[in-house]
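Recall from the previous lesson that a structure prediction takes nothing but the amino acid sequence as input. Here we apply that procedure to AAA family ATPase from Candidatus Thiodiazotropha endoloripes. The sequence below is the only information supplied.
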Amino acid sequence: MNSSVLAPLREHLATRVIGQTSFIDSMLICLLSDGHLLIEGLPGLAKTTAVKALAEAIEGDFHRIQFTPDLLPADLIGTDIYRHEKGEFEFRQGPLFHNILLADEVNRAPAKVQSALLEAMGEHQITVGQTTYQLPEFFMVLATQNPVEQEGTYHLPEAQLDRFLMQANVEYPDRNEELQILELDNAQQQQKPTPPSNPLSQKELFAIRQEVNKLYLDPKLNSYIVDLVQASRNPQAYDKDLTRWCRFGASPRASIALARCARARAWLDDEEFVAPHHIQAVAPAILRHRILLTFEAEAEGITTDDFLSRLLDMVAIP
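The prediction returns the following tokens.
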């Protein structure tokens, strides 16, 4: 089995989203790595459209929930409903029990709602009272967020950010891509797009994930992954500017994510083993939301991606 098995899925995404290759690759890598994706970008950049197109091409239940300041944790998890005819409480499942959950504008809801996602994303289960409920085996959260500079947004808690396997930044399209977007919109006005007739089954997805997990990762590259993450916590060993810019580094979840996502990246490239460039390709999306910069870095106009670019240049490749 090779990446051609995902060709129908890629083709379907191409009919709904123009450009955004890096964003689409991040969705596929998270899908193959059994992880969750945080998608950041300004309004109108097809974030929601891309997630809905992905859900259409995969077998499973899909649910979209719009995060708002008045949302409650029970709106995500579900709640106990009293049944008079039975004289007992019955649990009514919330949106978290679907296979694919689109958490739209996730950073417009307050912290107590954000925390409702923690157990679900980390352990594929939720606890209500004294009862724990297992979520579906295939469970994926794709959350969109607007930049925190926009009105009505909240900073996501660091604990929740760490649950996301990757963060994809969606940028404006270039001129040619925007012309294609106009043509696509005109075509869709005349004929509505239809979902694929043969979506990727969950059985096929689980088989692909097993194959991805078996891809060879040399022990030296494990050391390289750990060196990258350790360098984000102890940048003074590499560069004085890195030390000034970084307040907190990445957690051990980042090391696990780098190994898993590098395997997925190599599999999508039809490679039989992981190479250093696969790790470097996925590192920015895995580390950018796990690193907290200092006020000094922000004052100098240094972004997290600037920090990571310098970090990748400093850490030696085996």
